[in-house]
Protein: 3'-phosphate/5'-hydroxy nucleic acid ligase
Amino acid sequence: MTETTYEYQDVGGGSPIKMWTRGVPVDEKAREQLAKAARMPFIFKHVAAMPDVHVGIGATVGSVIPTKGAVIPAAVGVDIGCGMMAARTSLVASDLPDNLAAIRMAIEAAVPHGRSTGRGRDKGAWGDPPQSVIDAWSLLKIRFDALCEKYPCLKNTNQLVHLGTLGTGNHFIELCLDQDQRVWVMLHSGSRGIGNAIGRFFIELAKKDMRTWHINLPDEDLAYFPEGTDHFDDYVEAVEWAQDFAKLNRRVMMTHVLDALRSEIAKPFEAECEAVNCHHNYVTRESHFGENVLVTRKGAVRAAKGTMGIIPGSMGAKSFIVRGLGNAESFDSCSHGAGRVMSRTQAKKLVTLDEHIADTIGIECRKDEGVIDETPKAYKPIEAVMAAQADLVEIVHTLKQVVCVKG
Structure:
């Protein structure tokens, strides 16, 4: 095991924070947000902060929050089950066509992405879902119907039409080459509109409960459900369903992307067995330090010993397929990416289109002002992030994108 690299922070009046942030910048507001969470009375042992840590809505992105007897819906957030999937194909770089723009257009045609508002169909949703999506939805429908019996407000949300779709923001689909010039497909998305609806509904319900019980909080976003209450059980049921939706969403997209590649690449190929599908915004029950606890990872990946994970960089940087080292102090966790150093608004103000074009040279991707908020300069250097967590994961494959699709 590599020497431990975390920083210990005593917040006073609460549990400590252990931060794997050596060599990477940490915004003071992120430290303050972490400290508020660490002062909640049901934190188990300590809060862990990953090297990609930055301020988030509700809770800090890049945080691992273990609890006993309560769950904080805003710590999971509204992009429930957001995560990554990567699959190695039998192709190598020389099998790819010279015209990578055709590859990008084929992927964009196969997977709804982005968002449009106003009248007419949202371009980020299916108009008429294909049979593959309808078949996949049948795996989730019975549990969803049961959830809607308790909470009818969830019924009129996007479920079927968002299954197998990408979304917006930092969600992406990439075609990558690894260190041996083998071709990988990698994608990033979550539970889409229905996960957002579930997250927002239960976050507001938790806040309402806190007001009803006259519980004062350091931050309203830390509203929680105590274990043993009906709302706790309902939230756990709903969030587990949304996490399953997210994982299935990525599987359906992966199938459609591989089919799109087959339409543009003459050589027959298969997706090999080496595939990873992991959440990085979720809550789950795990055993740590000999006790059963709820672990909420917001912008963090499970990195138990031998467990495979994915840590992407920005749309112009390397990404990594990793194997967990099982570091108990991090609650078997690692970062979920590079982490932002600029907000989306800051990036749009500070980064020019020429800089974005220069930073994505050699990559077939959007090079317009609409993706400046996702430009490489908006993120921490992925190499520094990986160095800061050398005791959490080992690198198995190093990927570099050649095609990137953004919503």
User: Anything to note?
Assistant: The mean pLDDT is 95. DSSP finds ten helices and 17 strands in the chain.
